[in-house]
């Protein structure tokens, strides 16, 4: 119990239109259980001495209510903290409340990896490692690594026999692509001439940190190379890594550790990964049931009765009409599914109404959506509360209503002008900001824990 856990709960912008204002990412269900519940169960296995949930203003009320509803279900005390303007500033603000080494976690991961394996890697690492960051390679064929996950270009020392290296630098993939080359600093090459560039390592966003990290952040105003303003967590770790070759004296390092190739790790922070996270849990559930002999044996059913496969899950108070079938899918609670419906490889959230003769394949249906008769959808996402009209057919589409809620007058005017003039809204250059004037690239907000919606 020497570690504390800091779980960062973002809003889930990349999960739109399923998550957003009506449901924050942490509360989005995977196998009919909130993402946050899976993370807290993992923390229970790790036996952390305390868990702090860091929430955005939009998510804090919903998450607080969830934690308060089940006070006796956890053996580890849970505290709620509100996010500052960046992850770096948030860590600096929490420094006075943290008196031990700590683990930074996202709220959106699904894994079968025992937490003790990760903690043991950090314990066994060089004492000069200030942080051990964990990385993985995508093993899910249905998720395109480059197009969907977009790994950054990481510069590090060669991996040793234990699968560890030292992080030296990191550049956003799009930044390198736009510039058509990768600038490598001579100062780094003088100290680390054997540096390696990796283009397929993905962030788990799990960082095991020694307590002195917070001291450095608290003193960041005196060291521009680790200034916390406008820093995502990955940029912050990159700046820590750069200190190892920017300074003349030897400083503590950031370790890069790979997850075992056999481990499953999914960050459900985008829709394809969210769908796969549900499928993974259902596969494991069906496999475990088969091994234990608890799988439902084919039973005599009334003619025309609905069929639900062992690789599927139907929530409480949900009803299926005659001659409907559910395969490799998760159906939430209080859903109504009509007759002659075929649902395959889908996630249907709570309170959804599906009428008769509907076919859904590889779709995500938001909470309280309404699907009318004879609808055919393939690989679509439907916003919560949206009504799909009778006879509608679509493939690879996003179905949602147009909303201007949340825009003030100035924002609405700017939006109107942008649409009228057909302006290019590309990112502006951030310019130089670190001590050695290294060219900066702006990480997308999605790279941070708080991905804004």
From TrEMBL:
InterPro entries xrefs: eIF2B_gamma (IPR051960), LbH_EIF2B3/5 (IPR056764), NTP_transferase_dom (IPR005835), Nucleotide-diphossugar_trans (IPR029044)
UniProt keyword Cytoplasm present: yes
Main location: cytoplasm
Localization of this protein: Cytoplasm, Cytosol
Positions of the EIF2B subunit epsilon/gamma LbH domain: 305-379
Domain Nucleotidyl transferase: 10-137
Keywords: Cytoplasm, Initiation factor, Protein biosynthesis
GO terms for MF: guanyl-nucleotide exchange factor activity; translation initiation factor activity
Listed GO CC annotations: cytosol; eukaryotic translation initiation factor 2B complex
BP term (GO), one: cytoplasmic translational initiation
Region (Disordered): 411-453
UniProt family annotation: Belongs to the eIF-2B gamma/epsilon subunits family.
Function noted in UniProt: Acts as a component of the translation initiation factor 2B (eIF2B) complex, which catalyzes the exchange of GDP for GTP on the eukaryotic initiation factor 2 (eIF2) complex gamma subunit. Its guanine nucleotide exchange factor activity is repressed when bound to eIF2 complex phosphorylated on the alpha subunit, thereby limiting the amount of methionyl-initiator methionine tRNA available to the ribosome and consequently global translation is repressed.
Subunit structure comment from the entry: Component of the translation initiation factor 2B (eIF2B) complex which is a heterodecamer of two sets of five different subunits: alpha, beta, gamma, delta and epsilon. Subunits alpha, beta and delta comprise a regulatory subcomplex and subunits epsilon and gamma comprise a catalytic subcomplex. Within the complex, the hexameric regulatory complex resides at the center, with the two heterodimeric catalytic subcomplexes bound on opposite sides.
Protein name: Translation initiation factor eIF2B subunit gamma
Organism, scientific name: Wickerhamiella sorbophila
């Amino acid at each position: 119990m020497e570690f504390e856990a800091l779980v960062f709960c973002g809003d889930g912008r990349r999960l739109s239109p399923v998550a957003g204002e009506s449901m924050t990412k942490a509360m989005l269900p995977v196998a009919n259980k909130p993402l946050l519940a899976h993370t807290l169960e993992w923390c229970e296995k790790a036996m952390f001495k305390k868990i702090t949930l860091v929430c955005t203003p939009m998510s804090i009320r919903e998450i607080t209510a969830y934690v308060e509803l089940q006070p006796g279900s956890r053996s580890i005390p849970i505290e709620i903290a509100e996010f500052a303007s960046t992850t770096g500033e948030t860590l600096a603000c929490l420094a006075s409340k943290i008196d031990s080494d700590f683990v930074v976690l996202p709220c959106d991961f699904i894994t079968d990896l025992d937490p003790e394996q990760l903690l043991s890697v950090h314990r066994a690492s060089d004492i000069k490692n200030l942080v051990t960051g964990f990385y993985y390679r995508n093993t899910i064929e249905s998720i395109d690594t480059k197009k969907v996950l977009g790994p950054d270009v990481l510069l590090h020392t060669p991996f040793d026999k234990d699968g560890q290296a030292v992080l030296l630098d990191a550049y956003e993939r799009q930044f390198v692509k736009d510039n058509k080359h990768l600038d490598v600093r001579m100062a780094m090459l003088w100290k680390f001439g054997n540096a390696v560039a990796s283009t397929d390592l993905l962030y788990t966003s799990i960082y095991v940190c020694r307590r002195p990290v917070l001291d450095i952040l608290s003193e960041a105003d005196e060291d521009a190379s680790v200034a916390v303003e406008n820093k995502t967590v990955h940029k912050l770790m990159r700046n820590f890594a750069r200190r190892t070759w920017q300074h003349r004296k030897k400083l503590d390092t950031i370790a890069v550790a790979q997850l075992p190739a056999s481990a499953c790790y999914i960050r459900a922070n985008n829709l394809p990964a969210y769908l796969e996270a549900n499928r993974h849990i259902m596969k494991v559930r069906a496999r475990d049931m088969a091994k234990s002999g608890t799988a439902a044996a084919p039973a005599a059913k009334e003619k025309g009765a609905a069929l639900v496969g062992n690789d599927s899950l139907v929530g409480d108070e949900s009803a299926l009409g005659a001659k409907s079938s559910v395969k490799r899918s998760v159906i939430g609670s209080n859903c109504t599914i009509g007759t002659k419906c075929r649902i395959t490889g889908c996630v249907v959230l709570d309170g959804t109404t599906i009428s008769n003769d509907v076919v859904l394949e590889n779709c995500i249906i938001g909470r309280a959506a309404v699907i009318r008769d004879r609808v055919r959808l393939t690989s679509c996402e439907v916003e919560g509360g949206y009504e799909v009209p009778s006879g509608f057919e679509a493939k690879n589409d996003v179905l949602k209503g147009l909303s201007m809620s949340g825009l003030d007058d100035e924002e609405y005017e700017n939006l109107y002008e942008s649409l009228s003039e057909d302006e290019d809204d590309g990112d502006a250059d951030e310019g130089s900001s670190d001590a050695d004037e290294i060219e900066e690239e702006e990480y997308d907000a999605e790279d941070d824990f708080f991905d804004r919606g």
